[in-house]
Amino acid sequence: MKLRAIVLALTALLSTTAAHADGFLRAEGTQIVDDSGETVILRGMGLGGWMLQEGYMLRLGEIGQQHRIRAKLVELVGEERTATFYRAWLDNHTTEADIAAMAVWGFNSVRLPVHFNQLTLPVEAEPRAGEDTWLEEGFERIDRLLAWSKAHHIYLILDLHAAPGGQGNDLAISDRDPAKPSLWESEENQRKTVALWAKLATRYKDEPWIGGYDLINEPNWSFATPGKGNGCDETENKPVWALQRRITAAIRAVDANHMLIVEGNCWGNNYKGLPPAWDANMALSFHKYWNRNDAASIAGIVALRESYGRPIWLGESGENSNVWFRDAIALVEGQGIGWAFWPLKKIGFNQPLEIDPGAGWAAIVAWMTGKGPKPGADAAFAAMMQLAENSRFDRNIPHPDVIDAMMRQPHDPSARAFAPHRLTDSPLVVRAADYDLGPAGVAYADTVDANYHVATGGERVLWNNGTTYRNDGVDIARDADGVPYVTDFVTGEWMRYSIDAGKGGRVAVAIRARSATGGRLALGEREVALPAADRWQELTIPDVALADGSTALVLRAVDCADCEVEKLTLAPR
Predict the structure, then answer these.
(1) DSSP H helices in 309-376
(2) Is the terminal CB of the chain with fewer CB neighbours within 10 Å at N or C?
(3) Distance in angstroms (rounded) separating the CA atoms of residues 285 and 261
(4) pLDDT for the residue 21
């Protein structure tokens, strides 16, 4: 489907109350409300990877931090070309087109992860110790993002994702260099953090489309064992609260308008030792990854909301399957909690937009991770610039299934057509990978449909083993021409296909499938044998009745260990 068609289709599917900002979002009791006092459920995405790169988003998880990635690129192509790449990346990755699309899809907010070095120098690079050099270009990028957000009625939440020195032992999320003092080990880093928030608040104090200030993303620091641990066992967290109180005081000296968002230790989730609320207009954030989506998973933070008397916000979540997304959003919205999922785009298939890295990026990844030779400088620079260009919205691969799982399915669990399948007098080809949109158990069934490794204590698992095309449990691969097909289709799994049958009638159905060990498939109750072979085979069910109007076919794996299905062809009789 072309991007425009996808956007139009999703517009028809989705409906939300448009945000308005004649005044400011604020905390009122345990709810976030707008200027008229109406409760606002924030539905947003985080712009991860734009102003702060994390290695895994570029297939460089083994490298991790942005400063290490940048150093390797300098080694590869030189400082001047690396600077050119980063400017192109910043220019292309997030533009007004991204924000406009988010508004069309039904989102009402966007969370901007800020790297401090876009706005000020590191303490060790300041010409005069104890002073702050401000980088206007970074502020102007935020200004432009704010202008786009205003134009499309999207609240912009500023998130200090990489604080001076870095705020935790999960190094990549804050681009921390462990050879230098962290945020918690340096008073000067803390002073600069406070000064940066004062600067931001001074600049944006009168901007109602700024939805709030997320003060420090995911502190994860064990004060009892500095340099080790992520603060999950801390019982008081005094430095975490003390610094956020200092930031609050600096903001309130210039800005009485904006809601402040506090995060606990342990990636935002350890609130032990939290002092009484120190500001009337503050909310508490929590983050949620890879656990169960049941009441127990959020019981602690919901109880804190009630006892503390302040709103809570799921400030970050994601990196999972559509099943997990749908269930998590339904869970938190059922408790009146807004959310921001992560990220809007990256290299990979499980978010609204996918960046195609281009053919040359794999060679750079292989060299950086010690798995391949060093590419030539010219070829590497061309690949870098192709990646930067492909990060732009009009070059992204949209994933309407992810958007549907986030925006429609928490409220409407019915199956909907993924692609139009209209029966005419000519044969209708239905790709197996184009099964319906909808929750597991409604649109499809698969043996693995989400990753719960935090809850199980086990290893991370894949849901779509092919990691391409769609973000459900159905396993999808691509052939040499890039055409998607269903793979690892095993006993008990099934997929549903909505068909516009018009006046109805009878059709012959040919199923193009293969299995090295053989098996049995079924269309509805009509079973067909699949002989063992490595090649594609046509399995025919000669006479299938279709009711008039909208109907559905269900393809089942009756007895399969390794079945694969490319397509179904419906030929009117």
Answers:
(1) 322-333, 361-368
(2) C
(3) 6
(4) 66
Whole-number Å distance between alpha carbons of 196 and 243:
13
Question: What local confidence, expressed as pLDDT, does residue 225 receive?
Answer: 86
Q: CA angle at residue 193 from 191 to 199, to 5 degrees?
A: 105
Contact present, 339 and 317 (Cβ < 8 Å): yes
User: Where along the chain do the CATH 2.60.120.260 domains lie?
Assistant: 413-572
Dist CA 270 CA 276 (whole Å) = 15
Alpha-carbon distance 35 to 97, whole Å? 28
Which of 250, 146, 240, 144 shows the shortest CA–CA distance to 197? 250
Distance, in Å, from the CA atom of 445 to the CA atom of 458, rounded to the nearest integer, reads: 23
**Residue 278: left if φ>0, alpha if ψ -120 to 50, beta else—which one?**
alpha
DSSP 485-525: EEEEE-TT-EEEEEEE-TT-EEEEEEEEEEESS-EEEEETT
The 10s digit of each residue's pLDDT in 22-42 is 699 999 999 999 999 999 999
Those residues whose C-beta lies under 8 Å from the C-beta of residue 290, and which sit 6 or more positions away, are 319, 320, 451, 452, 453, 454, 455, 460
Give the C-alpha separation, 439 to 323, whole Å: 6
Rg from Cα positions in the chain: 25
Q: Which fold has domain 3-11+40-50+94-355+391-406?
A: TIM Barrel (3.20.20)
Q: Which residue has the tokens 């694969």?
A: 564
Q: Which helix (H) or strand (E) holds 380?
A: helix 377-390
Reduced to 3 states, what is the DSSP secondary structure of residue 139? helix
Both tokens of residue 179? Answer: 């050879």
- Write the CB contacts of 122 (distance below 8 Å, at least 6 apart in sequence): 116, 164
Residue type, 453: H
User: How many CB atoms are closer than 10 A to CB 374?
Assistant: 13
Q: Are 172 and 56 in contact (CB under 8 A)?
A: yes
Q: Is the omega angle on the peptide bond into residue 208 within 30 degrees of 0, that is, cis?
A: no
Alpha helices in 205-321 (DSSP H): 238-252, 265-268, 295-308
**CATH superfamily of the 413-572 domain:** Galactose-binding domain-like (2.60.120.260)
The structure tokens 């099943």 sit at: 323
Please state, in angstroms and rounded to a whole number, the distance separating the CA atoms of residues 422 and 429.
10
CB 9 within 8 A of CB 400: yes
- End-to-end Cα spacing for the chain: 29
Cross-strand pairs, 27: 32
- The most distant pair of C-alpha atoms in the chain lies apart, rounded to whole Å, by 83
Please report the pLDDT score of residue 226 as a whole number: 85
Using the predicted structure, report yes or no on whether residue 284 has a pLDDT greater than 60.
yes
Could you report the per-residue pLDDT of 488-497, keeping only the tens digit for each? 999 999 999 9
Q: How far lies 222's CA from each of 185, 217, 240, 270, in Å?
A: 12, 16, 11, 11
Provide CATH 3.20.20.80 ranges for the chain: 3-11+40-50+94-355+391-406
Question: Environment class of residue 524 by beta-carbon count within 10 Å: exposed (0-12), middle (13-18) or buried (19+)?
Answer: middle
Q: Once rounded to an integer, what is the mean pLDDT over residues 376-389?
A: 99
pLDDT reported for residue 18? 57
User: If DSSP codes are grouped into helix, strand and coil, which group holds residue 562?
Assistant: coil
